[in-house]
Amino acid sequence: MKMMKPYVWLQTSDDSIQQVEQEIAMFCPLICQEIIQKGMGSSKNCAICLPQQVSPAMLSLILDYCRFHQVPGRSNKERKSYDEKFVRIDTERLCELTSAADSLQLKPLVDLTSRALARIIEGKTPEEIRDIFHLPDDLTENVEVEEEHVDDRSVDDLLSFINGNDGGKLNILTILIFVFT
Amino acid sequence: MGRDMISELPDTLLLHIMSFMNTKYAVQTCVLSKRWNHLCKRLINLTYSPVPNLPKKIGIERFKKFASWVLSSRDHSCSLHNLGLHLCWTEPELLDKIIKYALFCNVQQLILDVYSGFRPDFQSLPLIFCSQSLTSLELSIAWNYALIVLPKSLHMPVLKNLHLQGGSATHELFSTCNLSFLEAVNIDVSWNGRWAEKSSIISSNIMRWLQVLANVKKLTFTSGYPFQIMLHDFSNPISVRPEPPSLVRLESLKVVKHFSVDVSDKEVNTLVEYLLRGSPMAKVHITRMA
Asked: How many structural domains compose chain B?
């Protein structure tokens, strides 16, 4: 008799249902909990409902990641080079992937994508970052006004501020301009 | 125009992403947009690492800016997990304040790689050595280490990793310790001037300290100086050898040798054997530096 490979049924955010090898899906702690604690996923009728963040495209990416890392005996070098290639995707998908992996509690992948996003942001000017991620420029006016305001308080004043002796509130922007310039 | 996907991520994920950045860039994200404006106040990992070889004056100014940001703008209700000060020039008062602040925020990992700024009357130094939250401490004090007097007792109940560089060992090192969870120790003690005259004091201090560290699994001598001092003392026929330490759980002993005098492998091996008398499982790695 042919050995049946166990499968698990998963429902993604667009309500479509698909069958996935159980041992690969179990890599995601959230799916693992559903299977073990709630006995879900064994048939199409009781498919595991994945969080909103997990679209079919993201699920497919995440399963690729799990499939690769699930194979025993791979060297650290192989894994590292796979990971590096894996996050070479456009930034929108990288964000989506971070969110999906986080919702499935897949920490190694969250770390991987977060690190990749951090690398994209680091060392760039605010304008460049806004361009890459399509961030709204809704603070600029504010900053220009603040730039003329010099914070001349001594560190002792600042410390007393922490201790609550000083009622005044400092705007972060005021200080920032002088922080790392 | 594409979608602003990254700003849709929850705060916890954005902070997680920022935790992989150099603190300077993480803090700069506050000028990006309203969404990012206040996030950096809740950073739990702060690393100050200016460009190397900064002149002292500029270095001090830069640290002042960093410290004022931390002390005034950070959300003080957020605990601080890591504080790393690297290659740091600082005024003693400010360094003292920032260390106290970190300890007040229950800092878990503290790296102090400081050029100047330590003083014997430092209030925060004894506080470090009785921190209830620190799991990892790396203390590296260049140049004026002679001024640092380490406290005699050390009560850090959750400390796992301790790296001491530059402390003077001419006085007694920690003799009473509560270090139940300490696993890894890296000692790199220094000395005042001509250590050869004091080698027997330093050597027996180190040895006594090793006796206190009974639970340690990893022991490293980065510079080889403590090792060299002990070797020197061992070569003296009139010095009395103290009891060897009993490091029963020790798994690894690492020594990086860049000895200034010729030391034969045989001498090193004799000392290693002596140190590891009570350590059945220990593996020894000796690296010779050019």
From this structure: 2
Q: Does residue B16 belong to the interface with chain A, where contact is any CB pair within 8 Å?
A: yes
Cβ atoms within 10 Å, residue B158? 15
Same domain, B152 and B222: yes
Q: Give me the residues of B, 28-67, that contact A with CB < 8 A.
A: 28-38, 40-41, 62, 64-67
| 3 state DSSP class of B162 | strand
pLDDT tens-digit readout, B74-120: 998 888 999 999 878 888 889 999 999 999 999 999 999 887 767 76
Q: Which domain holds residue B29?
A: 1-43
Is residue B218 over pLDDT 90? yes
Q: Do A135 and B41 touch (CB under 8 A)?
A: no
Give the global pTM. Answer: 0.76
Phi, then psi, of B2 in degrees rounded to 5: -75, 175
The conformation of residue B139, written as its DSSP 8-state character, comes to E
Are residues B36 and B71 both part of a single domain? no
CA–CA distance, B131 with B255 (Å, rounded to integer): 28
Closest CA to A10 of A90, A114, A103, A110: A103
Cα B156 to Cα B129: distance, rounded to the nearest angstrom: 6
Q: Which domains does chain A have, with CATH numbers?
A: 7-121 (3.30.710.10), 138-179 (no CATH)
Do B136 and B161 meet the contact criterion of CB atoms below 8 Å apart?
yes
At B255-283, the pLDDT tens digits run: 877 655 566 778 788 888 888 888 888 89
